[in-house]
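If you are new to this repository, start here. Below is one unmodified record pulled from the training split, so you can see the exact layout before writing a loader.
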Amino acid sequence: MKLPPEGARWLVALRFWACGAVFLATTLAWAMGVLANPLPLYAVGVAMLAYNLLFKLSQRDWGITHQGVERNILLQILLDLVSLTLLLGFADLPRNPFLSFYVFHMIIAGMYLRGYMPYLVCSLATLMVGSVMLLQSLGILRPPPLHFRSDPAGQWRADGLYLATVFAALASTLWMATYFTTSIRRYVDRAHAEIRQKEKLLGIGQLVAGIAHQIANPLDGLQNCLQRIGERVKDDPQSNEYVQMMVGALDRIERTAKRVQSFARPHGITVQPTDVNAVVEGTLQFLGALQHQGILVRTELGDVPPVEGDAYTLQEVLFNLCTNAFAAMPNGGTLTLRTRTLGRGDEDPMESVAIEVADTGVGIPRVYLERVFEPFFTTRADSGGTGLGLGLCRMLVSEMGGRMEVQSVVGRGTVFRIFLNLAKAPSGSMP
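And here is the target side for that same chain:
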């Protein structure tokens, strides 16, 4: 999900308030006797106001590319980190109550920056704070300490242990904030991509349903005409055979059109306890006519419990995966349908059943693995591929509460895995 350039403009607007807060807090601290020398902090505040005005004047050049907005936000964060370090460095950094403001910049970096950049920002912030504390512990940097009313008589001086403790607490907080923010951002990105894919497939389904409706109307007229023609050619075996072939073809077209209309109609999948082994065996009955010569179909059905799913929908998904596997083995090979309960050695061993469709075909290049579920993406456009099948399969599996993954090695084959949750036992029943 690409964030708009308004994020960078929002930082500029917020920084004006931050500059005002710097001047206000410095003035109050000086008036109350907490801060001895406010001039360095006023200077840093003026510098913040100056570079913020430059960002404000250059806003028209933002938003041309996403990379440009990201670089702009990175530059703003770096300048803010330097300014915050100078403000705290001149105002007793280890005891300054505004030391936690570094977390704010980690959150912004995790929200707007990609890849390793948030962790780079966190490393720079940790290095800045550590350097100030190290120079202070060595006596090289001696900023005037803050004077609070609760301080004991005499000048308070931070020792090495205190500085190390404060640094460890702050550094761990910054890294945890960066990790959690980037993790949430990645989750949001994945959810946003799935929503976009479902919206795109929904629009495609509605379009196809409209086309199917337009096809269904003239089919009725064709079937009536063929019925009358068939009555007249009963005495001609060859003509009658042709008529029956056309009637069968029209029936298949009509069933397909009604199926498409039913699929596109807004209704939910009926999720109920489903026997996956029975679904696999039922799918094999439809594969005989499509099976290519030289392809061996094997089954390795484990003793698996019922899952939460829809038998008809799951059979449709498996049929689609198997036909793709046949297309991936033009010179023959082995197609294996496998069911098993996930165990301790799996990534998700809790209450899940896996259905695997493995072939020994040509495989999928690594650069295409992340895109195979995208609508209209296909590597078989020349042979009639539309790029809709896998996207629909993943959407259907998701609606059943499961997920779908793919692994492939070029020249060795591909494995599609469907993970479904175990069916819930009726209330009051024994496990």
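Two things worth knowing about this chain: Residues 383-387, 427-431 have pLDDT under 50 and may be disordered. The two ends are 43 Å apart (CA to CA).
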